[in-house]
Amino acid sequence: MPSRVLVVEDDATVAEVVRTYLEHAGFEIAQAMDGVTALSLAGRRTPDLVVLDLMLPGLSGLEVCARLRQSRPDLPVIMLTALGEESDRLLGLESGAVVAAPPATPETASEIERALGVPGGERPGLRLRGGPSSGGPGVGALRGPAGIVDDPAATSTASPPATASPPADTLDYPTLVRDRPKVAALIHFDPNSARIRDDAFKLLNEYAKALKSPALADAVLVIAGHTDSVGSDQRNLKLSQERAQAVRDYLVERGIAPDRLIAKGYGEAYPVASNDTEADRERNRRSEFIRVDGPATGAP
Asked: What is the pTM of this model?
């Protein structure tokens, strides 16, 4: 049974990065954005480890840590703080927590490889429809219509045919991202446009480099486009699709096979932050790379 980790972080972007890395490593994750919810979850789910933000709304991370330790003095706690003050670090250490800085989103090819790699060197468990079946010649090559993936069917007359997975581009977003390797990238576009800004090319070139590496040479990715809530739902859905397609086109121009990349826009439906401030709206205007050619990391 995977170890249970409770992630308590009110910054949705940081929480998503932490959750992605831990799920990729095989941990079972519960998540809270404030101290009251965290204490309630800890009482019901008995975590093996708590990753706790120091600066929480309401109850602070220190207060949450103290209350958790009242009932479980030996509970391991990693306290996240982006603050550089020595006093903050000392307070965390005095509470018995390990103090660490939150992880950054992947920005180099090697970081992207680690984030999107299959744990344990497992071979991908999905293939493109029209590609070779398991045991057939050329197994592992990715062919067929772009964006269509199926479970590999066993080539044995004694076994019933494998049940096909639905195409990745037809899955609803929560199902698509559940337990799959995923990274979010803040790729900047011109306002109300799908034109990629010049300052985003460096990051996109790192993705192209990573996707050509041996670790990701056969990876199939959904490029998910998201917007903030400014504008109509219909306009944002169209804009997110155009932006995801623009990212896909750029990577194809850099030598990534078209049938490895699926562009899908989700509009404003799945924010990672509120849309109340410009900083939060910028977090929501993001592209995500979700690996779909392998089994979900939390799948049995």
From this structure: 0.57
